[in-house]
Design the sequence.
């Protein structure tokens, strides 16, 4: 008679097949467990296998990007690691990890790199390096010491070096081709250049209240702009502009900049459809050192509201971002220090003393941890606040998807269209909390 | 021109390869007994703590995995923790008890109820979904304590105890849960603990005669290792050889969860614990969070705000900008507060965890059938005894849960027994093979509506003679093998049985692999 709870087959196995597997030293190997010495095959399998083989490099790239660069890299900012990667690349105690990386350390050009992370509470450090050629490389380190005595505080020290080539400069102003400050040699054009940049940032962040952050930071930035090695990519800066209209080019600029920023963010989280208000203001002074004559001040603000619209999960968020640079009377400002427009989702290729970007986003809940976004941005630069006009506005509009956790944003993918063309935006990783303002440019 | 020629050649090769192999060749089983114990409990050093941060999990399940699977054309692999008889051998993931009625009433071995005074520990709780704390009783045994929700006395604690008893009966390791009465004076805090026990007790349902009803989950002595990864293996556990997404025991959790109306299936529901002295123990994998069973986490209250999101599927929401109408769901009944949102009706095929869970996503028909076979032997008496473990004072609640679990059991069995040809081998006697249709056996299908087509194949997949068609009038049938098939069995014989119920042919055939061993037939393998 069969016992309840045991299947007939199990009983049969127990009755007919005596012996079974004797206790071995280790677990039963999966191939032995199944008892299958030759798996079943179906007609379509060889064709599938060949097709799969052809897709293998793409799968490998996806795996590498996510395991080594994408997820891990983005999450390194918060010292969080993909578990599988952790098994491969971390020391047994999990305090030290090393990741090989491809592509994303220096941009979209093929490159190889490595990331190293050390994390021993409350201290954390990351080092990343990527090499895609003599003019396409990056090295960065970040050290953090966090404290929760009284209220959250973070001290950080960061170092950065990169070399990029193929960068373009249109000149200053909203319409560089007609702006009299630009002195073109042969008519308007894009001057191509390369840049070497080194930066050290020391920061201190404090969250005295749940919604309030105070950020103090000081940086030393050194830049050197010259012609790219590959002259076929386009006309160089001196081929497009007279040198007097591109201050800061072909010499090393060294600028010390100190800033205080205040941020009030009433959203309970930074996830997809949280409502609240974000206000941020900053001001800082910059001083050239070692024969660098530049002296200027930076100031600006960002104001955004995240308003429930019809439903709790549909949020309308108008935002305005203004950045300004005030130069001393006699000091020239290197063109790479002029405010750009990193918050504009079209092409960020205008620079001037004042920049304003206004945007309107509509975000709505699609499914758990995924929100959609429609947006429109308008952007304007001008020599001064009084000269800000509504004419010649540049605009960009698009659709995107935001992946978020219950507390923070995790990734964003969007397509933006503008009269200049289409722009694909992709970010992945938890944005840093404290001290991220100086990294925007 | 050259590229075109290369492409044409490649297409021709593909077509030729496909044509050359355009027939089914069955698997071949080795001639040795089925493995009945995976022996994955060998001594190992204590593995390290494992935690899956939410951002990492979400990026993995929503970005990396979909992208990778799109680029992978190979079929999803069948479960890898299955022996030659299509059964899951005993392991640290699966430990089926002998579930007679007495055993069901007694439940699993445990140190019994916790004994006061209790020391509240600082360590985080893992056995319940939320609102719990860890204690050590006067004997040093560790328990997790959870309270009821305020407006639903007995609901959550009862669900935890009933769910634990049912899961244990299904063979999935879980920590036993018992119901006890406590008061705030029974607890004192250890150094480092910040849990305000009095406040937690007050946050639950009101006390009766000064005593609060709580659920106590008993952890065996050992070291908590965090969540079991949903994919891959624990790299630092030499016993862990089978990728978790390919474990039938984990895939089957989706079926068990659908039966028990368990919400939140995911990595947080599987907790690893090192059991034994350091260096001499091994990892046991526990299924936890059963306080979310029986629809307790899906209760809709009249005070709940209307849905914040737009109605429809994600695609509809995308098109309607999230503004489509989305009426509020009907509130859960309040006449029997000990019962959550537990419906008698259920769509086992449509049931899905709230977040992608890779083992559940890889559930195949054979895995679902195996899971349904685990549920089938749990009779109304077994269910009643499990409900008894919940110590529900309201007899209406007991009755409601009993009826719901029985009705849902029938739905789950009917669905999964319909995804394969649900035949089990009873015996092989000489040249006769005794088989049983489980769907008929458990009363889900009338006995005389099914035809069985039996094909005999060689090990290479060639047919032997004409197929036999049977139309039995009972659950069991005895088939005498044709002489030609017995001759073929001297090398290797595959009996392939496909059922047709009315006009519908069941999707997967049952395969019985046989070989002559001396003068009698020996069963080498079974697949559903």
Sequence:
């Amino acid at each position: 008679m069969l016992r309840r709870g045991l299947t007939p087959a199990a009983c049969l196995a127990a009755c007919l097949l005596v012996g079974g597997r004797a206790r071995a030293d280790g677990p039963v190997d999966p191939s032995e467990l199944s008892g299958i010495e030759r798996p079943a095959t179906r007609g379509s399998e060889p064709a599938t296998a060949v097709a799969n083989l052809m897709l293998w490099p793409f799968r490998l790239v996806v795996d590498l990007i996510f395991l080594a660069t994408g997820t891990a890299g983005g999450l390194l900012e918060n010292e969080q690691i993909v578990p599988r990667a952790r098994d491969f690349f971390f020391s047994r105690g999990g305090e030290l990890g090393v990741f090989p990386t491809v592509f994303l350390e220096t941009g979209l050009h093929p490159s190889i790199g490595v990331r190293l992370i050390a994390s021993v509470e409350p201290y954390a450090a990351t080092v990343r390096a990527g090499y895609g050629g003599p003019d396409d490389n990056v090295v960065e380190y970040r050290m953090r010491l966090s404290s929760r005595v009284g209220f959250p505080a973070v001290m950080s020290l960061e170092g950065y070096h990169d070399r990029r080539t193929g960068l373009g400069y249109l000149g200053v102003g909203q319409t560089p081709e007609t702006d009299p400050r630009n002195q073109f040699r042969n008519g308007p054009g894009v001057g191509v250049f390369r840049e070497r940049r080194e930066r050290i940032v020391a920061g201190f962040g404090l969250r005295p209240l749940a919604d309030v952050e105070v950020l103090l930071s000081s940086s030393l930035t050194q830049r050197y702009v010259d012609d790219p090695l590959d002259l076929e990519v386009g006309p160089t800066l001196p081929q497009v502009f007279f040198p007097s209209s591109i201050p800061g080019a072909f010499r090393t600029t060294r600028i010390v900049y100190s800033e205080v920023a205040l941020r009030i963010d009433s959203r309970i989280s930074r996830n997809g459809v949280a409502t609240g208000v974000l206000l941020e203001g900053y001001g800082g002074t910059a001083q050239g050192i070692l024969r660098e004559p530049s002296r200027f001040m930076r100031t600006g603000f960002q104001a955004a509201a995240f308003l429930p619209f019809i439903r709790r999960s549909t949020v309308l968020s108008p935002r305005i971002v203004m950045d300004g640079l005030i130069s001393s009377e006699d000091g020239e400002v290197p063109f790479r220090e002029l405010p750009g427009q990193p918050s504009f989702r079209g092409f960020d290729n205008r620079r001037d003393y004042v920049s304003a970007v206004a945007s309107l986003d509509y975000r709505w809940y699609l499914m758990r941890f995924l929100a959609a976004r429609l947006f429109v941005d308008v952007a304007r630069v001008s020599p001064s606040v009084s000269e800000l006009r509504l004419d010649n506005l540049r605009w960009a509009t698009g659709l995107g998807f935001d992946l978020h956790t219950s507390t923070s944003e995790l990734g964003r993918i969007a397509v933006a269209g503008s009269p200049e063309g289409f722009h694909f935006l992709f970010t992945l990783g938890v944005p840093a909390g404290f001290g991220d303002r100086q990294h925007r440019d | 021109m050259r590229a075109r020629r290369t492409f044409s050649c490649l297409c021709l090769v593909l077509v030729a390869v496909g044509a050359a192999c355009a027939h089914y060749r069955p698997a071949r089983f080795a001639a040795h007994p089925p493995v009945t114990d995976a022996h994955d409990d060998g001594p190992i050093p204590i593995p390290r703590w494992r935690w899956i941060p939410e951002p990492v999990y979400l990026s993995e399940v929503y970005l990396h995995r979909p992208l990778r699977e799109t680029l992978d054309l190979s079929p999803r692999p069948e479960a890898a923790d299955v022996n030659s008889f299509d059964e899951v051998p005993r392991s640290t993931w699966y430990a089926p008890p002998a579930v007679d009625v007495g055993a069901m009433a007694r439940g699993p071995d445990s140190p019994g109820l916790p004994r006061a005074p209790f020391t509240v520990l600082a360590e985080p709780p893992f056995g319940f979904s939320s609102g719990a704390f860890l204690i050590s009783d006067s004997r040093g045994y560790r328990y997790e304590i959870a309270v009821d929700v305020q407006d639903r006395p007995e609901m959550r604690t009862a669900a935890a105890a009933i769910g634990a008893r049912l899961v244990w009966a299904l063979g999935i390791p879980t920590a036993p849960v018992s119901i006890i009465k406590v008061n705030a004076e029974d607890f004192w805090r250890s150094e480092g603990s910040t849990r305000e026990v009095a406040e937690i007790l007050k946050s639950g349902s009101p006390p009766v005669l000064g005593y609060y009803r709580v659920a106590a989950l008993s952890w065996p002595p050992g070291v908590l290792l965090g969540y079991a990864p949903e994919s891959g293996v624990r790299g630092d556990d030499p016993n862990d050889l089978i990728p978790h997404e390919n474990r039938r025991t984990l895939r089957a959790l989706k079926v068990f969860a659908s039966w028990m109306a368990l919400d939140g299936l995911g990595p947080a529901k599987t907790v690893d614990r090192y059991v034994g002295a350091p260096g001499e123990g091994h990892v046991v994998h526990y299924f936890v969070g059963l306080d979310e069973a029986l629809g307790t986490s899906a209760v809709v209250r009249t005070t709940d705000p209307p849905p914040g999101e737009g109605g429809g599927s994600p695609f509809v929401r995308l098109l309607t900008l999230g503004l489509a109408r989305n009426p509020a769901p009907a509130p859960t009944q309040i006449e029997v507060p000990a019962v959550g949102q537990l419906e008698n009706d259920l769509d086992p095929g449509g049931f899905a965890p709230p977040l992608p869970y890779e083992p559940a996503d890889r559930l195949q028909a054979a895995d679902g059938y195996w899971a349904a076979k685990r549920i089938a032997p749990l009779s109304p008496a077994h269910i009643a005894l499990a409900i008894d473990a919940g110590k529900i004072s309201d007899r209406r609640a007991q009755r409601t849960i009993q009826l719901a679990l029985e009705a849902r059991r029938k739905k789950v069995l009917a669905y999964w027994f319909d995804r394969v040809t649900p035949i089990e081998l009873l015996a092989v006697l000489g040249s006769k093979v005794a088989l049983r249709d489980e769907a008929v056996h458990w009363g889900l299908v009338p006995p005389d509506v099914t035809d069985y087509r039996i094909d005999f194949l060689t090990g290479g997949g060639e047919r032997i003679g004409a197929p036999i068609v049977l139309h039995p009038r009972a659950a069991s049938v005895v088939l005498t093998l044709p002489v030609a098939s017995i001759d073929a069995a001297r090398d290797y014989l595959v009996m392939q049985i496909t059922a047709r119920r009315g006009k519908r042919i069941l999707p997967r055939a049952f395969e019985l692999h046989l070989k002559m061993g001396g003068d009698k037939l020996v069963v080498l393998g079974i697949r559903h």
User: Anything to note?
Assistant: Residues 45-76 of chain A form the longest helix (32 residues). DSSP finds five helices and 17 strands in chain A.
